Amino acid sequence: MKDGSEVIEIPLELIEEPSKPVRMKMTEEGLEELKGSIAERGLINPITVRRKGKGFEIVAGDRRYLAVRDLGWEKIPSIIRERSDQDARLDALHENLHREDMSPLEESAQVAELHRDFKYEVKAIAKLCRKSVSWVHSRLEMVEWPKNILEAVDVGAISVSAGRELCAILDDQARDYYLDHAIKQGATAQLCAFWRGRWEIEKITHDPSAVGSGSFDINPPPIEVLIPCFWCEREIPIRIIDHLRVCPTCRDLIGRAKAETLIEAAQEKRESSKNTDALM
Q1: pLDDT, tens digit, for every residue of 114-142?
Q2: What is the 3-state secondary structure (H, E, C) of 49-88?
Q3: What is this structure's pTM?
Q4: Is 102 or 276 the better-scoring residue by pLDDT?
Q5: Spans of all domains in the chain
Q6: Rounded CA separation 261/265 (Å)
Q7: Which fold has domain 1-83?
């Protein structure tokens, strides 16, 4: 068998799965979709393997290998390339970072590996991934996030942006408290930023160390999670506030009505002030 770019049919029994998979998880639904596509259209892209002992190890294409194996194929189109452990890993990272179905946690782990183990600069990673420098920085930051926030992001309970706001709450008890409400209420990044702001105010108010006098270990968890009312902008406990489901047209109408109400209230206040001045 020749090495290089030539596509060769290799028996599945001679191929091993990668010793260190790049993907953290593989859903049954995703694998079934891939199997259906291969069954209908065939395998469009061959897998890449390297020699290992008397057989081969997958460098790129683990999901394709599993799909054709489940379909009962005996051989799979492959490209053989001689790769060291480091080169094989780098090839796998390069291929997977261009995939559209990567989870934020997988992106974070792979970006961190390129930066830490392969000494890639942030700009080089951004160019490789076709992403912005800020995106790379955000994925590198995720490596240090608390485990429960990473798990919430991984299952889609909160967004990466919401998770970043919650991570800025340094008190473990307060952060866990707000995270629980974020998951239950489907909180946006904007709402989590509002909670973070409240925590920072409470810390300055109740934590002597925040203003340079004395020390304080942790704040007690918040008694109420508050959210500003869309209409009057008062801070209301989230447990009693109503969440209205409206279309964009009605949302704009409500917004205009709110603006008109505020204008009328301001005019009434000015008129009242004039009448008071006249009486004096």
Answers
A1: 999 889 899 999 998 888 999 999 999 99
A2: EEEECCEEEEEECHHHHHHHHHCCCCEEEEEECCCCHHHH
A3: 0.62
A4: 102
A5: 1-83, 147-243
A6: 6
A7: 3.90.1530
